[in-house]
Amino acid sequence: GVTMAWKASRAARVALFLAAVVLVQILAHAAGKPFFLTQLTMSAYYTLVAAGLSLLMGYAGQISLGHAAFFAIGGYASGLLTTLDLSARRGHGLVAALERAHLLVSRPDLYGGEVLSVHPWAALAAALALALAVAFAIGVPVLKLKGHYLAMATLGFGTIIYSIVLGTQRFGAADGISSVPPFPLFFGVSVTGDPSLRVLNYYFAWLLVAVAMVLLLNL
Q1: N or C: lower Cβ tally within 10 Å for the chain?
Q2: pLDDT tens digits, 58-97
Q3: Confidence at residue 186, expressed as pLDDT on a 0 to 100 scale
Q4: What is the pTM of this model?
């Protein structure tokens, strides 16, 4: 009986959260402030990062002050791959092999030309693999430290990644990477900053947060 009640309370919390998401969207529409949904969509993705930090520090008890570094590694890696123009090397070596494997995609650029870059889904997989590899390489020595030394090591790692990103022109320095293509989902729907898909992107982002909530509640 206690188990069933606990499961019901967890489901009720998620349902209440989703109801609040819908209510906010309705209020934004009624107030004529659709731009708020763009800000809230970004907040949803940052909430996912915070949920991961909660899992690491709140549940596992590991102090990490460099959590945002892995967020940056994944984001910048996928952004770089999807904006890197490989047209000049089309038909040569690795680029040709990737194109045969349908891991590359052609798209128009801002000036009417054609850009050959990594498909967003392939870029996502590569970014995840890179973040995982860096986490393993850093985690093996760092997790042998304790107390303040562990915290300082993670802080140092985060500072290093921040400095690399800020000082690298290819990463856009302080401006970030521009012209990142939409991330395709299904039936022509994509994650993008297009105002016509603002509401859909808002719901998709917060649905991901709800899924993360369910996973954490059942951990």
Answers
A1: N
A2: 888 877 888 889 999 999 999 999 988 888 788 778 888 8
A3: 80
A4: 0.83
> How far is Cα 105 from Cα 120, in angstroms, rounded to an integer?
9
Residues near 63 by beta carbon (within 8 Å), at least 6 away in sequence: 57, 150, 151, 154
Q: CA-CA distance, 44 to 201, in Å (whole number)?
A: 10
Sequence-ordered list of residues with C-beta below 8 angstroms from that of 13, at least 6 positions apart, any chain: 213, 217
Q: CA-CA distance, 118 to 106, in Å (whole number)?
A: 9
pLDDT digits (tens, 9 = 90+) for 23-63: 999 999 899 888 899 999 999 999 999 998 888 888 888 77
Is residue 117 within 8 A of residue 107, CB to CB? The reply is yes
